[in-house]
Amino acid sequence: LLFLLLIALHGSLALVQTPAFLMVQTNQMVTLSCKTQTSPSNTRIYWLRLRQALSANSHYEFLAYWESKKTVYGKEVDSEKLTVHGNPPQNVLTLQNVKPADSGVYFCMIIGIPNLVFGTGTQLSVVDVLPTSPQPTKKTSPKKKVCHRVPTRVTQKRLSCAPLILGLLAAGVLILLVSLGVAIHLRCLQRRARLRLLKQFYK
Question: Which residue range forms the structural domain that includes residue 196?
Answer without folding.
Answer: 166-202
